[in-house]
Protein: Gamma-tubulin complex component
Organism: Micrurus carvalhoi
Amino acid sequence: SRFDQEQDLAVRELIRQVTGLDERSPEMSGHFQAALNFAWSNFRFHQFLDVSRHKVEKIMEGIYEKLVVHSDLVKAGSWRRLTEEFLNLSLPTTEGTKRDAHYAVLSLLL
């Protein structure tokens, strides 16, 4: 179906963007196929639980504290500022700030 084709293209683009792999490259095609199989397996069989805001905030605070402990105060300040800016952004498909979608994106990145 058209939806399946669009979904396949979107998954392939996601893999290219996240990993930098090129499925047309002979050296990378095996790795790309493994990533594609992994992604589809997760989409089909994984039960996606709701993101725990508390857990994400705890991880973000832990990263901030590690940066402070290691005297990287500039990065610590940037980390806190950028994560707060992101949480306060209005996303295209979501109204409001600090929504589950924001925390889901951060959880994926962390």
Notes: Residues 2-44 form one domain.
